[in-house]
Model the fold of this input.
Amino acid sequence: MPEGDTIHRTANALRPWLIGEMVRSAWGWDDWIDAPSIAGHVVSAIEARGKHLLLHLDDGRTVHGHSGMTGSWHIYPHGESWQKPRRRAALVLETNLLSVVFFNPKTLELLTSAQFRRHDYLARLGPDLLAETIDLNSVVARFRNANHKPIGEAVMDQTLCCGIGNIYKSELLFLKNIDPFSSVADFDDDALLDLFELARDLMQYNLQGPKRTTRFEGDGGKLWVYGRSGQPCFLCGTEVHISRQGDLGRTTYWCPQCQDRAERQVPTNPNYRDSNFT
Done:
């Protein structure tokens, strides 16, 4: 499932092959994007911004892609078979050496420089937790404007900070003994700062890929609670629950014992920022 670390890994993988290269031909879903107009232009920069990938062209335009639940970027040397059907290719960029294919996106658009500057959603994105530099205190300040929200919804709000999806939401709240239905107002600034520091640490670790993990016990279990509904909690044995949160019904996995708000201050879970994964 693409989250912030996935998109940053994708950007890192694409840069050596696309930056400075001329797109010799381009095609895709005509009702989504004017792909042929990209041909003849050079990719000048590639940027990951939360869950959004931005390919900047030498004429000032930007290809904006959001993978959603099913989208993915692939790189194929010419002549190599694709892993997915051609009909699912929303965008294909061909250089002298290879083809870059974007399959099944949630969003794909080609923006002029003015459209990019004025893009309503991109302009409202919060700080990217994987940005080279980030002021996490500013992230805390943004969350104070969402004190009324359950924290399980707030951490998924990309206008507060971007990069966290369902997996990191569930794992982070578990690791910090946080009831996902508690309000943001229940937490002081230090507790929120601690949460975001752990988020950044884990996401930076997982840039190495390819298998995302938040658990380092050596028994093959990569995640603490995500995807484990009905199974026993690794720490206390209580059955892991799944719930839907927010207007979009995003899934939250949680342990009702470890994440009981009355027990929130009990240091049940390990503090991985003191471990050797950083």
